[in-house]
Amino acid sequence: MCGITGWVSFHQDARTQAPVIEAMTAALTPRGPDAGGVWLGEHAAIGHRRLAVIDIEGGAQPMTDRPDAPATVLTYSGEIYNHHELRAQLRGLGHEFRTRSDTEVVSRAYAEWGEAVADHLDGMFAFAVWDERQRRLLLVRDRLGVKPLFWAAVDGGLAFGSEPKALFAHPEIRPRVDADGLREAYSLLFNTGPTVWSGVREVEPGGLLLLNRHGIRERRYWQLEAGAHPDDRDATVARVHDLVSTAARAQLEADVPLCSLMSGGIDSTVLTALLADELRLREGPDARIRSYAVDYSDQAESFTGDVLRTGHDTPYATEAGAFIGTDHSTVVLDPRALLDPEHREAVVVARDSPIGVGDMDTSLYLLFGEIRKHSTVAVSGEAADEVFGGYPWFHDPKALAAPTFPWLLVTGDEAAMPLNPELGLRIGEFREDTYRGALAAVPHIDGESETEHRQREIQHLSLTRWLRQLLHRKDRLSMAQGLEVRVPYCDHRLVEYAFTSPWALKSFDGREKSLLRAAGTGLAPESVLHRPKNHYPATHHPDYNRGLQDMARDALADDRVRSLADETRIKPCLDTAPDQLRWGHRLRLERVVDLALWLDHYQPDLAL
Q1: Which pTM does this prediction carry?
Q2: pLDDT digits (tens, 9 = 90+) for 479-500
Q3: Are 533 and 573 spatial neighbours (Cβ–Cβ below 8 Å)?
Q4: Which of the following CATH numbers is that of domain 233-529: 3.40.640.10, 3.30.230.10, 3.40.50.620, 3.30.70.1150?
Q5: Identified catalytic residue from 2, 259, 490, 573
Q6: Which tens digit of pLDDT belongs to each residue from 591-600?
Q7: Out of 51, 84, 432, 437, which residue is the most buried by the measure of CB atoms under 10 Å away?
Q8: What is the rounded distance in angstroms from the CA atom of residue 155 to the CA atom of residue 108?
Q9: 573 is catalytic
Q10: Got the DSSP string for 394-424?
Q11: Residue 301 and residue 217: Cα distance in Å, rounded?
Q12: What is the predicted pLDDT for the residue at 576?
């Protein structure tokens, strides 16, 4: 895992701009604390920060195809899980290798297949190739969008980076926010392409971008497609087990310590069990994988359920660790520590955005910091809910019938910071237009029922929108601590197979995630297999709520915050007794605090 950045301009000589590319690269140091490097050519400047995971000695970047007069220069972030197979294939085609790294496999694969390189890669990745012969830049992002990749226009070309902060180190790119950016940020629709920052765009998941003297061309090389499902229930369960097992095995490879994030839910527990079994096969029966969960010091006594949480995770995680035989630890956080302004600002800077989930972001950031003391790679169960139908909105008739994004019925405007009506953003109309466009992208199957197609729409929205913000959160907060997080449930073959499975199979036992539960039989305790869906934990401590209200009052003393936020709708959240503050209203306050921190750190130009 790493940070990548650079720019291409056909109007200037990049060789005279070393301080610029060095500043852009330095902005990504947390993503790559182990090493850094830059490459300068006539029209291109390429930078890289490295978190060394595979081939510690041989994977330095930017990587050129040959030491002198290179034809290609690569800066790459991620992991290619089929790099051994590709290496053998490329050797058979006449390619020679200097290193064991998957980075060199990507470089040689580009030399062989050009822009079709992405079709051959299995993994999570974002990379840029500058081709000196053809004078062109290729940007590529993995199929599900696990790894981020942003770009913005500059004179005569474009600049790119793993995070917007790298772009802002370029003298032609200012942090600027307009009405469109505020709509993107606060509508909670999770579009990919436009961002909160004016002029800064994302490469689409499963997409690539080509730049040459004639301009920019973008295309998708992968997207979800619908088709006939070939298997009955037993065969489908067996196939799901095989696909999850294969993904887990492939993602166990690392030359550094690796662990698992195990909350005590079915997703992470099944995954941890498969990883533990594979590790014992490789290293012997006494091998134990480390596993981690997070908790708050007050949870055992003061846990109360809310719209997203039905129970306390820690007992289930402890039971799962004993059942599987992991070296399990629970990182216990003091809820009051989540109010630390230094931690809060670090989270906002990591995300480059005012939109987060408050204490849940801060606690995840602190959890990753603790894990990083022992491990460099963590494996996570993210995406299983989207792949197997785990969210309440898959099963709620009201959500299925509603003409809007289903998560808005769960969180709703109650959880969105209300914006100043004088801004005239017309969020409601924006949501309606975006929803129509999102539904138009959902593939159809001839002859399928209206009910079946609606379930396909809900899953498509969840995989192409809701999941993106979860992956964004996990990437940015983990990489801010120099920790790589892998997500086996995002294996595109598993996603494709599950997407074609009819809803009757996904819910054959009348519950959520039927296929995963059946495939995981014997891998987890029965209590975990049959446990209801539980979201990432939040603190319930009144002292946290009281401190949050104080921070929100301070934030609203800022003229810039008041110009953007609807103070009249936020004030009732400030006046509520701390122990009576509802989850959604608390999240409003979290976003007011984050907005103030974001404005203070980035000092953006507001063009409203």
Answers
A1: 0.96
A2: 999 999 999 999 999 999 999 9
A3: no
A4: 3.40.50.620
A5: 2
A6: 999 999 999 9
A7: 51
A8: 31
A9: no
A10: GT-HHHHHSSS-THHHHTTGGGSPPBPGGG-
A11: 57
A12: 94
